[in-house]
Amino acid sequence: MITIDFPDIRFDMIWNYKELFIRGIWVTLGLTLIGYVSGVILGLLLGMGKLSKKKWIYYPCKYYVDFFRGTPLLVQILLIHLALIPTVFGESLGYFVSGALALSLNCGAYNAEIIRAGIQSIEKGQMEAGRSLGMPRGVAMRYVILPQAFRRMVPPLGNELIALLKDSSLVTVIAANDLLYAGKVVAGAYARFWEPYITVAILYLLLTYIFTKVITYVEKRFSNSYVPSQRRRIFSFGRSAAGG
Amino acid sequence: MIKIQGLYKSFGDLQVLKGIDYEINEKEVICVIGPSGSGKSTFLRCINLLEDITDGVVFIDGVKVNDPGTDINEIRKEVGMVFQQFNLFPHMTVLDNITISPRKIRKMDSKEANALARQLLDKVGLADKADAYPEQLSGGQMQRVAIARALAMQPKVMLFDEPTSALDPEMVKEVLDVMKQLVYEGMTMVVVTHEMGFAREMGDRVLFMDEGILIEDGTPEDVFDMPKSDRTKAFLSKVL
């Protein structure tokens, strides 16, 4: 017979460690945001690289993306923290540098695919129209393709942010004092598991909830400014009909 | 002004253009007709190198277009193009669609570019649409904006790739009228079209293409009334 014996829940022990949790939140947020911002920039370069017709640009980008999407993030974190950084710099630069680097490189690979797909989803005629007006490829990309593609990229890029926030908990293996690490410390100190891990879960949930709200807001903003008729049709409908 | 010699184009194993020689003089209006799949759009797109040229040469104003040393962007500034599907930039207002290239490529300041755009919009009869977005316009209006956008670069030649084929019948005329106006102003034009009326009325020369070969070339009267080739006769009997 299974007996579920809930011990009396004691959240006061969490309260005693509240500073550790608050610090954990900041570390998690910091790692996520740094990883995400550099991941978007990296993803943009890699994504465009994967669209290049030049083989010496295309293949490095492709292999990079294949590697970082094809290996576990946990392995990447360990490789970077324990092997790459000590080899290059001769010493560890701390969990934060390793963690941020691993998350950036990983996030860049995933974003590259989103950005590549977003750019490819724009009709071929748009690039042709830009080029036929004398725009070099880069100018057409900047003013014609990317503004349209970006709007389509917002939802998947938003998902990526949420995923990264949760995946950032893996840095706990290199003793980064992120949110999960705070839970582990409390669990270790009291040999109790319900309270610390439930707290950690709730705090992650809270963070992803806030991020989701922000992403929804950004999506709305962009769809408004780029599908302007939703705002404007009422005003110009009469003229439109008369003009046609 | 445009000189085409031995132009070949293949897509993989498919030969689309099989050796075209042609010369277009300044202020000439060339209408290219022919069945679909005859290579007429490809022919047009080879002129401004939207398609890579497999073999042969294209000269515009004496400059070899398909030369690795030629900056194709410089050539394209002088060669306007209008597409079947309009290809307006949906995220920009009509005004921005027209001014983007003069501003970014010709380095015109916004005030000057806006004035030019408004003047062109007036010309195509859409002065009141400057602040509209493309999707608020009808097909005919979009195509007229596309023509204004191409004209804003003040090109020497205009290429039209079936400009009325995607339009509802009642909108064809408004686009053709704008094109006629350009003809009267002396613009050099190459028009791929299914509008035989336009070709007959406005073309200085009509070019009939089939299966990647230039079959017939002459004045509209020659081609429409006294076609020499049986293929031309067969085609005309279907469309006229």
UniProtKB/TrEMBL annotation, chain B:
SMART domains documented for this protein: AAA
Database matches in InterPro entries: AAA+_ATPase, ABC_ATPase_HisP-typ, ABC_transporter-like_ATP-bd, ABC_transporter-like_CS, MetN_ABC_transporter-like, P-loop_NTPase
Keywords: ATP-binding, Nucleotide-binding, Transport
Domain ABC transporter: 2-236
Pfam family, one: ABC_tran
Keyword Repeat included in the entry's annotation: no
Gene Ontology molecular function: ABC-type amino acid transporter activity; ATP binding; ATP hydrolysis activity
Similarity annotation: Belongs to the ABC transporter superfamily.
Identification of the protein by name: Peptide ABC transporter ATP-binding protein
The organism of origin for this protein: Virgibacillus oceani
